[in-house]
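BUG: 3D viewer hangs when loading the predicted structure for this chain

Environment: internal workstation, default settings.
Expected: structure renders.
Actual: progress bar stalls at 90%.

Input used:
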Amino acid sequence: MSRRPGLSVRLKLTLSYAGFLAVAGALLLAVVWVFLLRYVPDNSQGLLGIAPNRYLLVRTFAPAAAVAMVFLLVFGLVGGWILAGRMLAPLTQITAAARRAGTGSLSHRIRMEGRQDEFRELGDAFDTMLEQLESHVAEQQRFAANASHELRTPLAISQTLLDVARKDPTRDQHEILERLQAVNTRAIDLTEALLLLSRSDRGNFKRERVDLSLVAEEAAETLLPLAEQRGITLAVTGGATRTSGSAELLLRMVLNLVQNAIVHNLPAGGTATVHTEAQGDASVVRVENTGHPLLPELLPTLTEPFQRGTERVRTDEHAGVGLGLAIVHSIVRAHDGTLDLVPGPAGGLIVTVRLPGGP
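Structure tokens produced before the viewer hung:
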């Protein structure tokens, strides 16, 4: 955005310093005039015939006062220019860093030295902002690369199946169509998951009162056939737990948690429990399941996009797209909540979601 040219901050500070010094000098000379020269007799003999009169003092004092005023003005301009330059030097560093960041270089840090003053605090805050921005951009780049890779895989498989069908007309067309449908369904699921993740990240949804216990019951009812198919006992406990947010996104959050609890479980005879309760000003949803023990270092990666947790037991038909807990984390963050992942004492995973309580 173009602006009209004007005085620089350094020049403005210089003029302010010089003007203040000149005004202070003028006031000092005025005080001398008012409280000293006004009491000197204005006659030819002076005081008692031995002291100079006012006329002589004025003629002697005025040139010296004029020289002093000129000196103060020049000294104020030169000193003010140097002082303003030293004071604004940290701001110049911050400006240079901001320009470098504007060109895409986010790895640069100011690391301002010196005492802890306002400029040092501004420089440290700018470094923190650059660090967070660099981390966010790197995360978005990784997400875009992973999303491109995940979307390219079903498209490549579809292309291969089409090539096979075109080159070998005698091949079973029904089998190819079924495989194409499966690949297409996976691509649609992945696209919908990406759109849902983007929507929850933006946080542009209408808030309403939601009872998480009803959401948990709906999610359990929806996924009960999957639990029965895999021999998992699914239970919902707790009482009414109200919060404020998007009913659709919160349902998706609980659905993803329950589906993960079912899929990443024991081969048979496992359990998955959804518990809701109000704890003070927070509304809590806790989903825990049985399963094989999890390595502690694996937990932080589970909420990253496309990190399916290779150490977790799953079958190919329910491998998912690797966005389940990433979507959960995004929805929780959009609702100003927290997400905690803790390994179960005998295996499995305990996921605790804390959201602000509703009326």
